[in-house]
């Protein structure tokens, strides 16, 4: 089993395939097991690295540090794997770690695809007020209603159950997660020079497509990928479309280099 002992905790990770390294960072409802669609589709083209954040999946959190240590943990794993420059695909909570890493170590990030998230971004006041309304409106939704779109909930009850069962192996939920991470303004993130892209499901109730689109426009040259019939977990709900569009975006960085 690929574990790394880091301070008092054990961090779990997996490496699949070969090629340009792509690190997948999960959300609060996920862990390494959530990315099975992406591993199967991408391992022939990329080196796919899965990382369980501390307190999620098979990673422990002996220090009860939570988010405070996510970026340091990620750095330790990448150093152990001798990976000097990687791309990130970061969903929901994972975006906070990817953005923090990119701002601290920009030379080590080839590109960053932020999926169904604005975590880690200090939002302009007008956008922040809209997000506050969204958070109020979604506060009492069930976990399934929060993280999966209406199309998936209506058509895929078995996969909905699988999603919730995968999340059941995590120590933390969005209500119990501890620790803090810094956030950065769009200007600070853009100043890293890291190539940025956004993806959002049209049915995402936590980070609505319109708001994500408005934030994306603040990053000059960034691309927005919108997926129909998908909610907050587009990678899980619409994997074929997600895999095709994101792989295409990752490959296109070579032509822009």
TrEMBL record:
- Keywords assigned: Hydrolase
Question: Per its UniProt record, what InterPro entries does this chain match?
Answer: AB_hydrolase (IPR050471), AB_hydrolase_1 (IPR000073), AB_hydrolase_fold (IPR029058)
Q: Name one GO molecular function term.
A: hydrolase activity
Broadest EC class assigned to this enzyme: hydrolase
What organism, scientifically named, is this protein from?
A: Pandoraea pneumonica
What name does UniProt use for this protein?
AB hydrolase superfamily protein YdjP
EC number(s) stated in the UniProt entry for this protein:
3.-.-.-
Q: Which residues form the AB hydrolase-1 domain?
A: 21-239
- Tell me the gene name: ydjP
């Amino acid at each position: 089993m690929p574990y790394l002992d880091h301070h008092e905790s054990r961090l779990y990770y997996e490496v699949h395939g070969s090629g340009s390294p792509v690190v997948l960072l999960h959300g609060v409802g996920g862990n390494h097991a959530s990315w099975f669609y992406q591993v199967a589709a991408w391992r022939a083209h990329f080196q796919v690295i899965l990382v369980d954040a501390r307190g999620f999946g098979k990673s422990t959190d002996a220090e009860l540090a939570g988010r405070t240590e996510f970026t340091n943990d990620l750095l330790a794993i990448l150093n152990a794997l001798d990976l000097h420059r990687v791309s990130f695909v970061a969903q929901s909570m994972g975006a906070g770690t990817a953005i923090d890493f990119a701002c601290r170590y920009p030379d080590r990030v080839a590109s960053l695809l932020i999926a169904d998230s604005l975590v880690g971004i200090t939002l302009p006041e007008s956008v922040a007020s809209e997000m506050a309304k969204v958070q109020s409106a979604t506060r009492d939704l069930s976990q399934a209603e929060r993280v999966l779109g209406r199309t998936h909930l209506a058509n895929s009850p078995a996969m909905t159950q699988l999603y919730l069962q995968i999340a059941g192996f995590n120590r933390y939920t969005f209500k119990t997660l501890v620790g803090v991470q810094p956030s950065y303004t769009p200007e600070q993130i853009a100043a890293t020079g890291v190539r940025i892209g956004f993806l959002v499901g049209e049915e995402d109730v936590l980070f609505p497509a319109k708001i994500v689109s408005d934030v994306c426009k603040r990053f000059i040259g960034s691309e927005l990928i919108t997926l129909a019939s998908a909610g907050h977990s587009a990678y899980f709900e619409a994997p074929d479309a997600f895999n095709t569009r994101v792989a295409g975006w990752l490959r296109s960085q070579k032509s822009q280099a």
